[in-house]
Design a protein that fits this description.
Layout: H1 3-7, E1 15-19, E2 25-29, H2 32-44, E3 54-55, E4 60-61, E5 72-75, E6 86-87, E7 91-97, H3 103-116, E8 121-126, E9 131-139, E10 142-150, E11 155-159, E12 165-169
């Protein structure tokens, strides 16, 4: 599928769509935890102000047609759209929520990609491991620093490159319910 065809395709509601480099299209339904985790991150972003520029599942332009629609992103306050979308250069933080089918992509592929393009902070939120990994100091192949924080360990202040602080409440992130069998 060409990028133009993808941009004009209506995919079923409630599904996450991944495009492999081999041309495969993978569609997986979002879990309740995935959706609730994104909602928690959005609520926590209110500390940046009601009108802070944040986005969830919205395309951001990257070079070489490596466009992404991250689970959650915080943009610079003065970010301006380039046409219909924002540029990767406007991004202060990207967070991806791990699902059963996306663990390798979120931990490996996205870490390399977002680091390569200089995204200042990349956060992997993993409901299954009940932890958050905050990557900082981007390099050409990933990030220099990665710090892991467990769910239930309070409020996590994350410094943004523009001087603002995004505080993620680790006590409010949902975990998959334990199997009661």
């Amino acid at each position: 599928m060409s990028v133009d065809a993808v941009m004009h395709t209506e995919f079923p509601a409630g599904y996450v769509v991944f495009f492999g480099i081999d041309g495969k299209v993978i569609m997986t339904p979002q879990s309740f935890e995935h959706s609730s985790t994104i909602k928690s991150m959005q609520i926590d972003s209110l500390s940046l102000g009601r009108h802070a520029k944040t986005a969830s599942d919205v395309y951001i332009d990257f070079p070489a047609d490596e466009n992404s629609a991250p689970d959650f992103a915080i943009l610079r306050e003065d970010a301006q759209r380039q046409g219909k979308r924002y540029s990767f250069e406007d991004v202060q933080l990207i967070a991806e929520v791990v699902s059963a089918s996306s663990a390798r992509k979120d931990y490996d592929d996205c870490t390399a990609k977002y680091g390569r393009y200089g995204i200042p902070v990349y956060v992997v939120v993993d409901p299954y491991a009940a932890e958050v990994v905050v990557h900082t100091q981007p390099t050409g192949s990933g990030y220099i620093a990665a710090h892991t924080h467990k769910y239930g360990s309070g409020k996590l202040p994350i410094e943004l490159a523009d001087g603002r602080t995004y505080t993620l409440d680790l006590d409010e992130l949902p975990s998959p319910e334990a199997d009661s069998h």
